[in-house]
Amino acid sequence: MEQTTLINGDFPRNSKGETYGNVYMVNELGREPDLQAAVGEDGIEGYIRNDEIETPKFDTIEEQLAYQKSQPPFWFIPLYDFQGNEIGQFRVSNGSVSMPKGTTLEQARALVAAGANRG
Q1: Are the CB atoms for 25 and 34 separated by under 8 Å?
Q2: Is the entire prediction scored with pTM above 0.90?
């Protein structure tokens, strides 16, 4: 049976030993579960594996933009039930760096760095 709250202060675990939960639990525990709650195509509720959507780390905005330009605008990864069984698809969008008009390169670098330091 799917558990939707913490168990003894930790994420619940499925029969495979994988942890699962939502983003609000991350704030309390300071780490992500193996399977994170998500809503897939056609409104199907399930979980995604965070390691399937990770992107490389970049030293400069230029490197990030070059990488993003080389990627498709979106792609799909599997959507799982809490036991880790595939039940659908989750659409991942190619993120972009969006800065206000007139932003200098130095200001953009500072904004990106501030955003990276928050997470």
Answers
A1: no
A2: no
Distance of CA 16 to the CA centre of its chain: 21
At residue 97, does pLDDT exceed 70?
no
Q: What is the 3-state secondary structure (H, E, C) of the chain?
A: CCCCCCECCECCECCCCCEEECHHHHHHHCCCCCEEEEECHHHCEEEEEHHHCCCCCCCCHHHHHHHHHCCCCEEEEEEECCCCCEEEEEEEECCCCCCCCCCCHHHHHHHHHHHHHHC
Mean pLDDT, residues 78-102 taken together:
79
CA distances from 88 to 47, 80, 92 (A): 10, 7, 13
Phi then psi for 21, rounded to 5 degrees? Answer: 175, -170
